[in-house]
Amino acid sequence: MVLTEILRDFVGAMDEEEINRSLDEFLASEPSSRAAREALDACRDGMGIVGERFEHGEIFVGDLILAGNLLTSIIERLKPLLTVSEDRDDRYHSEGVIVLGTVEGDLHDIGKNIFRLMAEASNFKVIDVGIDAPPDSFVRAVRDNRPDIVGFSGIMTFSVEAMKRAAGALTDAGLRKDVFLIIGGNGVSANACAYVGADAWSRNAAEAVKMCVRHMGAGRTASRPRKQR
Questions:
Q1: What are the strands, taking DSSP E only, across 83-128?
Q2: Domains of the chain, first to last
Q3: What is the C-alpha to C-alpha distance for residues 111 and 3, in angstroms, rounded to an integer?
Q4: Beta sheet of 200-202, edge-to-edge order
Q5: Phi, then psi, of 224 in degrees rounded to 5
Q6: pLDDT digits (tens, 9 = 90+) for 173-214
Q7: If we measure between CA atoms, which residue out of 151, 159, 203, 209 comes closest to residue 180?
Q8: Ramachandran assignment for 153, one of left (phi > 0), alpha (psi -120 to 50 degrees), beta (any other)
Q9: What DSSP designation does 122 have?
Q10: What is the β-pairing status of strands 96-102 and 149-153?
Q11: What stretch of H or E contains 53?
């Protein structure tokens, strides 16, 4: 089995000891930048396996957090091998950019954090505005980062109203038409999606990430020009 397959499987199994041993051997071989990119891509494929395991109920939130920390550590070890041009955000985050936050009045962040970890593992760059985020936080983040996607998270009964206010703020700022808006949380539904004026909704973080990937894929298929950042 080649190294990339080994790393993919060890990351998928969240075997930290074997990941570090394999990376030690890999780095000792003085690999090229291209080999480092391939190793990093394999690790991200492994995170895809982690996401599937979570979706199937085989692992839990704590495991996702561990997997996210492992990927961060791997990236830091491989980064010195990559050239400046290969280290740009558009290389590491080839799927696109997401602005994400839990809406105003809601202090819950577990679902948001799970989505962020899985989105980052799927090669998205995620700008997290945190919890209890007022509408202007989303407006500033969208204006400053020009994302492809905006995600509102919330589980409280009043969160849908907060999502509607945040969506309205994006519209008033002239930014809504430029982004794919997805809402998530236990209280969202098709009716809530229509009320907020969102493009998609999901109560499942893994499914929400898949929706984002499909959206970006549809944009590329339609030859939609990527934003200049």
A1: 96-102, 124-128
A2: 3-87 (1.10.1240.10), 93-221 (3.40.50.280)
A3: 33
A4: 124-128, 96-102, 149-153, 180-184, 200-202
A5: -70, 125
A6: 999 999 999 999 988 999 999 999 999 999 988 899 999 999
A7: 151
A8: beta
A9: T
A10: parallel
A11: helix 33-55
